[in-house]
Design a protein that fits this description.
Order of helices and strands: HHHH
CATH superfamily: ACP-like
CATH topology: Non-ribosomal Peptide Synthetase Peptidyl Carrier Protein, Chain A
Shape: globular
Helix content: 55-70%
Oligomer: single chain
Structural class: mainly alpha
Distance between the termini: 10 Å
Number of domains: 1
Radius of gyration: 11 Å
Number of strands: 0
CATH architecture: Orthogonal Bundle
Number of helices: 4
């Protein structure tokens, strides 16, 4: 999906986090992954979704750097743009 908007990416990331077991009501841009019980394996899966849906490759160092939902959305949207 080229030219994905930040809103598109945010919606897809939120959907993925709910699939991983995060409480939908707790998902917000400033929510930390650890507070949502999202672990490193979930982040690897999120990286796969980013690549499949947006053609964005997230490397291990990218995943180690992002701590919040908003940071993940910003990084994916920036690279997808």
């Amino acid at each position: 999906m080229p030219n994905a908007t930040k809103e598109d990416v945010a919606q897809r990331v939120n959907e993925a986090l709910v699939e991983f077991g995060a409480d939908a009501d707790a998902i917000a841009p400033d929510a930390r992954f650890e507070a949502l019980d999202v672990d490193s394996l979930d982040l690897v899966e999120l990286a796969q979704i980013a690549e499949d849906d947006y053609g964005v490759e997230l490397k291990t160092e990218d995943l180690q750097r992002i701590e919040t939902v908003g940071q993940a959305v910003d990084l994916i949207a920036e690279r997808a743009g």
